[in-house]
Please model this.
Amino acid sequence: MSRQTALDTVTRYFDNGGFFADLAPRVAIPTESQNPDRTEALYAYILRHMIPALNRIGCGCAVWENPSSQGGPFLYAERWEGDDVPTVLTYGHGDVIRGQEAQWRDGLSPWRLERDGDRWYGRGTADNKGQHSINLAALQTVLDTRGGLGFNLKVLIETGEEVGSPGLNRLAEDHRQTLRADVLLASDGPRVRPDRPTVFLGSRGGINFDVTCALREGGHHSGNWGGLLADPATILVHALASITDARGAIRVPEWRPPPVPESVRRALADVTLDAGPTAPAIDPDWGEPGLTPVERVIGWTSFAVLALHAGNPEAPVNAIAPRATAHCQLRTVVGIDPDDVIPALRRHFARHGFDHVTVMPAEREFFKATRLDPDDPWVTWAVQSIERTTGKSVAVLPNLGGSLPNDVFAQTLGLPTIWVPHSYAACSQHAPNEHLLAPLAREALQMMTGLFWDLGTDGGPKRGCTLPGE
Model:
């Protein structure tokens, strides 16, 4: 049997409705990790869908309880073919954000996979059930075609990524030898364009925090007290405005990374961001000056106010509010100390006289920034494999603009990390009407089948496996 046979097989699987049939019941399970009442659904996804799929690939499976009190269970699976072949670790998350049922378009439900032209709607189709289902189907195809994978397979499925992956790093530390591998090959996030295959090698870090100005108990009539009482909302917005300039360029010195490395600039030189006709237009004058749009979102930090609250926005009254709060986020890149992000902001506010403004980290864990060198041999190998399958030029992103727990794999486990995303930026993940593009999914099945076939044939770049400290 040949590589082309495997590619033809996985293409028929998609064209004949096999992938849709496998994905539909997975989407139907409401695995909302942000909802504390969905614990049973998290277990159901692992027990009813992931374990049978992995058993068919010849994996032994074990459910690992979360070492954190906040997170859902993990599934670990392994197929071992020999000590003289490479070992790949792959990852996915079965949890999704809240369904937001009432906000979906008429006729759609987050818990029902629905076709509409090239779009397959349903919560998790893009993030991340559809993506790891593609990878598992590709592995199954290689196994069925060849009779073996040609490499050792380790699979880790978590159910808490959407709440910050609580317990994942501790789990990796506790099972470092079990999770030992030569490379991580996984899928999450978007391509740079729907029609351009993409790999990314890390992610920006994500740190959420609350900025608050609280001055007194209770509101006071603005007619009687206006001009006499300091307004927490006014103080807060001035404090927030000091974080960036009017175009969003970072003003907190410790939040500004070193210059974009030359290897990153080279990798991004031919990359343009295009999420399709439904995506918002990029604002050319927003963010750090002197950088291209792709460098601003891949190679630099960005600050955002995610929510702002003072008084009663739904029913304003004539009163000076006692407090104002903003929920904020900093996306960081390699070169920023994540442990100093919040202390640095506190120092910044003190320098600017905002003594009544406090900064508190959010309860959820934060993701650290990571970036594999684009010149790493595993990158070259993966790009060549994908280009052989698709005949297309592959976009190489040193890191994703978003955040995911890649630091667990890159730093705790010491692995080179190759992510092959199967979605696109306008997929409405984390929003109503989340969807997977059918042509993209079809190509992704072919790409991953080719990648896994080539790994079993040539063994990758033969990079040695080490763990941190060894």
In short: Residues 205-257+301-361 form a domain with the Alpha-Beta Plaits fold (CATH 3.30.70.360).
